[in-house]
Amino acid sequence: FSRKEGQTSYALLNANGTGAYVLARREPDVRTTFTRNAQYWATIPGNVQEVVFTPIGSAAARSAALLSDAVDLVIDPAPQDLVPLAKAADLHLRSGVENRVIFFGFDQEREDLLYSSTKGRNPFKDLKVRQALAHAIDTQALHTHVMRGQSVVTGCMTPSPLACNDAPELDAQRPAFDLPRARALLVQAGYPHGFDITLDCPNNRYLNDEALCVAIASMLARVNIKVRVNAMPRAQFFAKLEKLDTSFYLLGWGGAETDAQPTMDPLMHSYDAATGRGDGNNGRFSDPQLDALIDAAAIEVSPAKRKDLVRQALLLHHSQLYHLVLHRQMLTWAMRRRVDAQPAANNHLRSWLVRVRPDGRPTTTQTGNAQ
């Protein structure tokens, strides 16, 4: 269902469905309690009898709640808290790669950027400039120092690595960190002294998103690209992007799909109001050859032919650096030793799969989650 601003519907406040658990109590922004559905139609693999979801907005507070035994499971601990959580005797961590890729986008449509003093030409229209940015960013340093190991560096812009199995060179050919090369490319593009730009960035949507933007601003400063980081809450950030009110932005793309089409259609295709393709192309770049490959892949019934079309589209997008891919996020869940829960690639907790070893306490799992 859809709900307009300020409008409340029956479905918003009442339980529905035939799941493994039934709603027992709902306290908005405080806790939501579910109990095991005795009339569930299938076998429930886990043994959890009651699930209490507790939203905890502060990352530090979520970790503190886990350490103090106030909750049993946290599905989004802050990367900086992982080391102390791992050292706690009665806790353990489970990790996996999330279906979410993090990348930069650029305004490649306007002649004059909205948020730069450079006028009369748009530097992001020039492939050499986009290549210079790629060579100026040390993704391994971001992985180690900013993400604290909670990322997988990639050159393929699909949430799932499975979508890139047919184009492994996307990772192998990712532009290497090379400051002299970055400076030379800027000179060739006509920006020997660099330029200034504002980077729009969410500060509560992705793992260490604001810290990523600040670190990258520092890296780009080494090639005389002066970046002003404009960090904001995600609601404000996405509203800004929807209006195309940006020149340079950090974004993530995720989901359960392991196919490339749900990424190519909205993000890599030229904007087409009639079909809806390209609605996530916030930089409004346009490449007819890329569009033709994406359109053909969408209707090709031969698996072998479609695989080749997808491969060509991904390689073309990569060669032109229409987006600058950084990494895929890792998922790490922290839990008590007695809890056995495996992170899913879409970061959804499947309570019916969780098992808790009996220890004299009620078999209850609680999840601290900021989202």
Structural description of this entry:
The chain has helices spanning 10-13, 59-67, 82-87, 127-136, 139-146, 169-172, 179-188, 209-221, 234-242, 261-268, 288-299, 303-320, and strands at residues 21-27, 31-36, 50-55, 73-74, 91-106, 151-153, 195-202, 225-232, 248-254, 323-336, 339-340, 355-356, 364-369. By secondary structure, the protein is α+β, with helices and mostly antiparallel strands. Strands 1, 2, 3, 4, 5, 6, 9, 10 and 13 form a nine-stranded mixed β-sheet that branches. Strand 1 (21-27) and strand 2 form a beta hairpin. Helix 4 (127-136) runs antiparallel to helix 7 (179-188) and helix 11 (288-299) runs antiparallel to helix 12 (303-320). The relative contact order is 0.21.
Average predicted local confidence, pLDDT: 90
* Ends apart, CA distance between termini: 21 Å
What form results from the Cα inertia axes? globular
Helix content: 25-40%
* Strand residues, percent: 15-25%
Which regions are unreliable across 5 or more consecutive residues at pLDDT < 50? 360-366
Q: Count the strands?
A: 13
> What is the CA-atom radius of gyration, in angstroms?
23 Å
Structural class: alpha+beta
List its salient traits:
nine-stranded mixed β-sheet, 13 strands
Write the layout of secondary structure elements.
Blueprint lengths: L9 H4 L7 E7 L3 E6 L13 E6 L3 H9 L5 E2 L7 H6 L3 E16 L20 H10 L2 H8 L4 E3 L15 H4 L6 H10 L6 E8 L6 H13 L3 E8 L1 H9 L5 E7 L6 H8 L19 H12 L3 H18 L2 E14 L2 E2 L14 E2 L7 E6 L2
